[in-house]
Amino acid sequence: MANYPSTLPSPRVGGATYTPQDNSIRTQMVPGAAKVRRRFTAVPEMVQLTILLTSLEQVQTLDTFVIGTLKDTLPFTWKNFRLPGFPPAVYRFVRRPIYVAVDGGVQMWDAALELEMLP
Length: 119
Prior knowledge:
Blueprint lengths: L1 E2 L13 E4 L3 E4 L7 E4 L6 E9 L2 H14 L6 E3 L10 E5 L4 E4 L7 E10 L1
Parallel strand pairs: 1-6
Antiparallel strand pairs: 2-5, 3-4, 5-9, 6-7, 7-9, 8-9
């Protein structure tokens, strides 16, 4: 399993979101209350992070990692930001990073990452 490239920065402080996926299924019963049960025993969390890339080389490294190494779908390990001090978490990209130029500069980019943190 691949590791997040050490040459790329950690996410920006603040702004990270962790959203668990819905793990229940409801079946409406004709007479009485709905029946509710779990779908899965473990559920991935959706994670949204932003990293600041300060050079075009970092943009290329991230693209190569996502497209070339992970083939858009493979899981990778990275620091567990939600539980610091715990072992690394396993993530998978939901989609390729979205890049936004910072201050109109050509060299600095905010890269929005949408990931699944796997159980």
